[in-house]
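Quick start: what a row looks like.
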Amino acid sequence: MKYNLLNLTVLFLLPFVHLHAADDDGKLRIIVIGGHPDDAEYKAGGTAVKWAKLGHHVQLVSATNGDVSDRKGTRQEIAARRKAEVEACARKLGVSARVLDIPDGELMPDLETRKLFVRVIREWRADIVIGHRASDYHPDHRAVAQLIQDCSFLVTARRFCSDVPALDAMPVFLFTSDRFTTPRPFAPDIAVGLDDVFDQKLDGLHEIVSQVYERDRGVTVAPPAGDEEARRFWLKTRWSGRQRKEADKYRELLVELYGEEKGRAVQFAETFELSEYGRQPTPKELRTKFFPFFGAE
């Protein structure tokens, strides 16, 4: 399957605004790649806020434009709406957003897209790359996982995609959480408490109206748009359950990272698993340099 050549050419020939988005200020540069416009926000939005509050640079990327979502409008209108939603979400989170112009359901882990991912990661000068695991129900999610793993060596290979400077150092690659067990369950190395940023994550998710508040054919499943207070209460109730369940499931890891008292007290969490590809930091380095949140709650 070949993507729109014009759109991909524009992506490749951008004057690398992302490359020089910030000077070398010693801060981390993190890129989170999800299959659709909401995945990165759902799975890592709270941790993204925590990085951003410390001055680190975070970009949330959607690998597809989400245009087959069963909402009102044409595919073009749906794609435009979803792009606008995650951009509004990113502003609330204090991070950057990017949506690749690949049709929903058509992401392929082929050579063409591998090169695109290498360029995207290099343009952001990523120290950390986060994405789905290969164990996932959605083909776009599985493709993201495969592409990220395929890029883990190539992002530093100077002669591959030589039009964008190779990274000087191998990034750390991590996976977001999931509930799938075949061929093996998710096994996190990092659990990040979100209690201090949970409301800000919800402020961001509130902007992703089509996915958060609607279902098939645009039918509203939450309180109506005019009732802002009820809608936000509905959102908080729903997401409190999700993030509390994640914290409870990985409670012992939270205790290990935060200590007994703080670890037991964490209500909401996001968790990540270190990939065996890419840079292999020591546990101490992972928990102090790359996720510098512990002991500062």
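That is the whole record. Residues 5-16+25-193+270-286 form a domain with the Rossmann fold fold (CATH 3.40.50.10320). The radius of gyration is 19 Å.
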